[in-house]
Amino acid sequence: MRSVVLAQWTFLLMVVAVASASGGCSHTQNPERRVYVISEDASGVGSNLESGTGGAGAEAYCSEMEKQCFKKCWRRKPRISSIPKGSAVHHEYCTTTCLEERMRCVKEQEELERQESQKKLDFPTINAALGWLREHKTEVAIGTVVIVGGMVAAPYVIAVMGGALVLAPL
User: Of 20, 114, 164, 168, whose Cβ has the fewest other Cβ atoms within 10 Å?
Assistant: First the structure.
């Protein structure tokens, strides 16, 4: 929730900066660099992000890693020589060690998901970008950078403005 509010504030500051910068001479602002409405309703944006490779898939992956860690740990004598192999203390040691590994795995997977949600999308024209974004709004995240124009790239960002989902100049 905080990231959505932060994205909204960032977008608002960006709009104010662009508006104040365009008050000078008429050739400073490229007329094609404007805010485009993707959808009048921003609900559902990013709702399918968890159903991709992340979310439950990441949880299952980390859970399996934890199980493999425990099996490996249980088969070996603990590094701490005072812990007898096969004892309740050994079980506790393996459980704690592997839970720590699982938590590291989950944190890494969350970071990968965050990076994936912030990926850049590249389109040849603004119409191609808008068409794709309208069809796939549940698969994108607020703050995703959208590049339009290939060699003469124009960066935009997906944002929410007044409840509408928009593509705004970056």
Answer: 20
Contact between residue 125 and residue 135 where contact means Cβ atoms under 8 Å apart: no
Domain extent for 111: 51-115
pTM metric for this prediction: 0.45
Query: Which region, left, alpha or beta, applies to residue 75 given φ > 0 means left and ψ of -120 to 50 means alpha?
Result: alpha
pLDDT digits (tens, 9 = 90+) for 32-72: 678 889 888 888 887 776 544 445 667 788 999 999 999 99
Residues in the chain: 170
C-alpha pair distances (Å), 51 with each of 11, 131, 132, 153, 165:
27, 22, 19, 31, 21
* 27-47 burial: b if 16+ Cβ within 10 Å, else e: eebeeebebbebbeebeebbe
Same domain assignment for residues 65 and 110: yes
The DSSP result for 85-141, as a single string, is TTSHHHHHHHHHHHHHHHHHHHHHHHHHHHHHHT-EEEESSHHHHHHHHHHTGGG--
* 125 shares a domain with 96: no
Q: Which residues contact 4 (CB under 8 A, 6 or more apart)?
A: 142, 160
